[in-house]
Design brief:
Blueprint: H1 2-12, H2 15-31, E1 40-49, E2 55-66, E3 70-72, H3 78-83, H4 87-107, E4 113-117, H5 120-124, H6 128-139, E5 146-151, H7 152-156, H8 159-172, E6 175-181, H9 188-193, E7 198-201, H10 203-206, H11 213-228, E8 232-235, H12 241-249, E9 254-255, H13 266-275
Parallel strand pairs: 2-4, 4-5, 5-6, 6-7, 7-8, 8-9
Antiparallel strand pairs: 1-2, 1-9, 2-3
Helix pairs in contact: 4-6
The structure holds ligand C2E and magnesium ion (3 copies).
Residues 45, 61-62, 73-75, 78, 91, 94, 117-119, 179-180, 203, 236-237, 239, 257-258, 263 line the site of ligand C2E.
Organism: Sphaerotilus uruguayifluvii
Domain EAL: 24-277
Protein name: Diguanylate cyclase (GGDEF)-like protein/PAS domain S-box-containing protein
Length: 282
């Protein structure tokens, strides 16, 4: 029977899939030790005010310095970390590291908002709000300088529970932002009730600006919606001058993307800031 099953299995799995599964198994066990081995790093991508280029904040983006594979981006390990709940300790590490860095910038006279991406499991953990409160107390970071990025999907699951948690976070004074806006399935009636501060226009729309009519219409509508709701609106993935001009003309508040600045480590970010001359007001 075992032999028959063995043969059946090999008929269903390509050798490539088998090696991929083995790779994942190895990656998973290495992921479990990556925090203690200090293999994670944060990069910070600048966010600037659209009207005058003023440097206002950063988004923290995780990288994994894998001992054999080199630098891995989130797409290569976050899903795996989520599957095995390793995202909870990894996410806690990201928050601690981001808050520590933000506190240093503050102390150095460079107040920047630091935005951190959350995963569903992390946000749903019963002690999540308490962990943020403890983090703020521990680091001494003024709460308004920490921004938590949530996706539409995270906000639309279990609406009453989410509303309660968001209200508690808001009470702590941290900022809340909806990431990749326009790609999920937000209900506008729920959106109206969410205590959020910011919306980020997904880069799939931004990338097609200004020529592509549909994306231009959607980006414009998201900006209108955010402003109508009294929220700050940020465009992500801004690469070109034409995109920047479109977004500025349509009233987008902040810009983030390779055309503004790449994700950089803290030292390189300081050099980036010193090297640039702020754009004169339009
Ligand atoms: P996101 O939150 O939408 O982050 C923006 C992503 O777009 C980043 O990719 C960034 O490097 C990339 N990007 C920035 N500017 C441009 C541009 O002009 N053009 C293009 N094509 N791409 C640009 P990254 O760092 O690979 O992160 C991918 C995703 O992984 C993030 O998307 C976020 O959802 C997730 N992620 C990153 N860090 C963390 C983390 O610490 N925790 C969790 N749970 N997720 C994270
Ligand atoms: Mg994000
Ligand atoms: Mg995003
Ligand atoms: Mg995105």
């Amino acid at each position: 029977v075992a032999k028959a099953r063995g043969r059946a299995t090999s008929a269903f799995f390509e050798p490539r899939q088998v090696s991929l599964a083995r790779d994942n198994l190895m990656l998973e066990s290495q992921l479990g030790h990556a925090i203690e081995h200090e293999e994670f790093a944060l990069l910070f991508q600048p966010q600037v005010r659209a009207c005058d280029g003023q440097f206002v904040g950063v988004e923290a983006l995780i990288r994994w310095n894998h001992p054999q594979r080199g630098l891995l981006v989130p797409n290569e390990f976050i899903a795996l970390a989520e599957q095995h709940r390793l995202i909870v300790p990894i996410g806690a590490w990201v928050l601690r590291e981001a808050a520590r860095q933000a506190r240093l910038w503050h102390a150095a006279g460079t107040p920047l908002t630091v935005a951190v991406n959350l995963s569903t499991l992390q946000f749903q953990a019963p002690d999540f709000v308490a962990s943020i409160e403890a983090l703020l107390a521990e680091t001494g970071l003024p709460p308004g300088w920490l921004e938590l990025e949530l996706t539409e999907r995270m906000l639309m699951d279990d609406v009453p529970g989410v509303l309660a948690r968001l209200a508690q976070l808001r009470q702590l004074g941290v900022k809340l932002s909806v990431d990749d806006f326009g790609t999920g399935y937000s209900s506008l009636s729920h959106l109206k009730e969410l205590p959020i501060d910011k919306m980020k226009i997904d880069r799939s729309f931004v990338q097609e600006l200004p020529q592509q009519r549909e994306s231009a219409a959607i980006a414009g509508a998201i900006i209108e919606l955010a402003r109508g709701l009294g929220l700050t609106v940020v465009a992500e993935g801004v690469e070109t001058e034409a995109q920047r001009e479109f977004l500025l003309a349509h009233g987008c508040d902040q810009l983030q993307g390779m055309g503004i600045g790449a994700p950089l480590d803290a030292a390189a970010l300081q050099a980036w800031q010193q090297a640039r001359t702020p754009r004169a007001p339009a």
